[in-house]
Amino acid sequence: MCGIIGIVGKEDVAERLVDGLRRMEYRGYDSAGVCTVSGGELIRRRAPGKLSNLVLELARNPASGTTGIAHTRWATHGAPTAANAHPHATEHLALVHNGIIENFRPLRAELSARGRKFESDTDTEVVAHLVSEQVEAGKSPQDAVRAVLPQLRGAFALAIAFRAYPDMLIGARLGSPLVVGYGEGETYLGSDALALAPLTQQIAYLDEGDWVVITREGAQIFDKDDQPVSREITTSGASAAAIEKGIFRHFMQKEIFEQPTVVAQTLRSYIRQVDQSVALPQFEFDLSGITRITIVACGTSYYAGLVAKYWFEHFARLPVDIDVASEFRYRDPVLERGGLALFISQSGETADTLAALKHCKAAGQTIAVVVNVPTSSMAREADLLLPTHAGPEIGVASTKAFTCQLAVLAALAAYLAVKRGRMSRAEECDLVAQLLETPAQLNAALAHDDEIAAMAHLIAPARDVLYLGRGQDYPLALEGALKLKEISYIHAEGYAAGEMKHGPIALIDEAVPVIVLAPSGPLFEKTVSNMQEVRARGGKIVLICDA
Ligand code: M6R
Predict the structure, then answer these.
(1) Any residues with CB less than 8 A from the CB of 142 and at least 6 apart, and which?
(2) What is the chain's percent helix, strand, coil content, to nearest 5?
(3) Which residues, other chains included, contact 523 with Cβ-Cβ below 8 Å and sequence gap of 6+?
């Protein structure tokens, strides 16, 4: 995921572009770049590594101009070098891109055959050349973009600056998010409302296939058939303050500590405290007749779905199919008309999950979406919108988004169980009481911060770590392993504890810490047996358990 921003402004924009990038560093952070338009020139500055490198580069070589675009990159095609950093430019234009152009190889081959020279290994540079060819053939920027967009396959949000048009930018989106921000005599493009938070709160969300021309006076939006359209301008709730670190060392730590508050906030919209019952917001669908749920998501959101599978099956006695979105569409899943398809996503923009959602919609499924960004593409496609209220997730690693997803999914499981006559009134009250206790329990867990930090020091030297769990703790083991890999670059695997003896046990010795999730309950004794197996091979056990 990358972040893009563009400004057609009244004053020099370079500093504000960099500030916008700072707010989007969570979308990617291995290189960054800026290009302004001034005096008939494109002034481009790029740097590999952290944003601070770009700041230094701009201090050495300032970029003036009241119109500009900028990008923070998370490399997918081509190493994180200055040459691969965006913006990519030709003599006529500079362009930033978030997404993946899937057909860039044949396009690049055709462009090369026509004599175009490439400076980078990226998929993005082909788009710069394609638009440039059209401009060189005498087309206006609008006609050039209009001619190129249908040639692109994959996902993109684009912002393009033209050397000969210093007061205009063109943006386009398909499969990746792009918003238009309206200011006082200025107009903006951004990957999300957060990036534009200090500039404006007035935001229009572009639809799939839209493209837009922005000038100081405003924006002219066209749909995928090139027809002029208007998109509603909403007042974004994104505040600049919500994306500050405050007293915390980093955003992930801040978000971990926000969990009691945001989980309570989320539960409040799913629980009626007056009668201790579960209720879904704005609910119009009769779910009592559904016979199967298909859950689709990626990464952490997928693991939240895996936990929910245990709950839907146990409490509501509903069979659940679950798959990662990147596999789902390609295995030709059997979807009976009238089924419920449930998508889980923090951002609501993950390309594979969005594509799977569209696949299910076309197959006549009712679409339920558990999502944190209520203005996202997935939220807008939902028949049944189940928001999490986690607030902006800036830390790349999901923490509070995951626990808020679990809160919503637990409420949904209880709701379905009640509707299907599988949960008595007394059981519902009991479950609601337990859910209402979770914020306090999260606080109690966070009070162990120092002990957890001490354990982290023990684990830090390891090259490999195993996470074990049974039942609903098995997906938690998978999520734990994902988090350790992502944050510490330590190889980690999550296993169902009972699977240990079927192969992975060979990995265990004194150098391999094993983190066991084993709360008290019917599966505890069985997991203790698996711990004995680990001990017998000298493995170090870290047990996460209740008293
Ligand atoms: O925004 P989404 O929940 O759809 O994102 C899906 C995954 O990319 C995401 O959950 C990812 O695995 C986590 N951020 C990892 O911590």
Answers:
(1) 170, 213
(2) 40, 25, 35
(3) 470, 471, 473
From 225, 243, 261, the end of a domain falls on 243
Enumerate residue ranges in the chain where pLDDT < 50: none
Whether residues 485 and 387 share a domain: the answer is no
Domain count, the chain: 3
Q: Rounded to an integer, what distance in angstroms lies between the CA atom of residue 221 and that of residue 505? A: 58
The whole-chain average pLDDT of the chain stands at 93
How many A from CA of 390 to the centre of ligand 1?
14
User: Residue 244: its pLDDT value, please?
Assistant: 74
The runs of H, that is alpha helices, within 420-510 are 425-446, 449-459, 473-488
- Residues 6 or more apart from 17 whose CB is under 8 A from it? 5, 7, 34, 36, 68, 69, 70
Give residue 399's pLDDT: 97
pLDDT score, position 494: 96
How far apart are the CA of 336 and the centre of ligand 1, in A? 28
Cβ-based neighbours of 385, under 8 Å, separated by 6 or more: 281, 282, 369, 371, 374, 379
Whether 234 contacts 379, CB under 8 Å? no
Pairing type for strands 3-8 and 67-73 reads antiparallel
- Give me the CATH number covering residue 415: 3.40.50.10490
Q: In the beta sheet, which residues pair with residue 157?
A: 98, 173
Pair (275, 415) in one structural domain: yes
| Among 322, 318, 321, residue whose Cα is nearest residue 289 | 318
**Span 305-336, pLDDT tens digits:** 999 999 999 999 999 999 999 999 899 999 98
pTM: 0.82
Are 468 and 399 in the same domain? no
Segments forming the whole domain that contains residue 163:
3-243
Q: How high is the pLDDT of residue 282?
A: 67
- The pLDDT score that the predictor gives to residue 50 is 87
3-class secondary-structure state, position 308: helix
**What token pair was written down for 412?**
């949904």
Q: 350 CB under 6 A from ligand 1? A: yes
Residue 396 and residue 486 in contact, taking contact as beta carbons nearer than 8 Å: yes
Q: How long is the chain?
A: 547
Residue 502: strand, helix, or coil = helix
The CATH number covering residue 43 comes to 3.60.20.10
Asked if 309 and 429 sit in the same domain, the reply is yes
Residue at a domain's end among 205, 221, 243 = 243
422 and 477 fall within a common domain: no
Same domain, 471 and 358: no
- Predicted local distance difference test score (pLDDT) of residue 256: 97
Tally of CA atoms within 13 A in the half-sphere of 303 that contains its CB: 21
Rounded to whole angstroms, the Cα distance separating 358 from 365 reads 10
Give the residue, by CA position, lying nearest to ligand 1 atom 15: 397
Whether 298 lines ligand 1, by a CB cut-off of 6 Å, is yes
Residues 297 and 197 in one domain: no
Based on the fold, state whether residues 271 and 202 are members of the same structural domain.
Answer: no
Q: Which atom of ligand 1 lies closest to the CA of 297?
A: 4
Indicate if ligand 1 lies below 6 Å from the C-beta of 346. Answer: yes
